[in-house]
Amino acid sequence: MKGDICNREIFAFNEIRTFTGQVKMFEGCWWIGTETVAVPLWDEMHELEVIGNIYENPRLLNS
To answer: CB under 8 Å, gap of 24 or more: what pairs does 54-61 form?
Structure first.
């Protein structure tokens, strides 16, 4: 849901990494984004975990 903060495992640079960002809508698609980068919200090959939302705990984006 828009405003949720999620951890998503992505495969980058030949290893699995955890990406943390806010769920956002952009050009009709849902993304997990930060100030500089975004990844698609849903992917059948990677794990997604909702860890909070920007309204209750905005500090999660700074970790």
So the answer is: 54/3, 54/4, 54/5, 54/22, 55/3, 57/5, 60/5, 60/20, 61/5, 61/20, 61/21, 61/22, 61/34
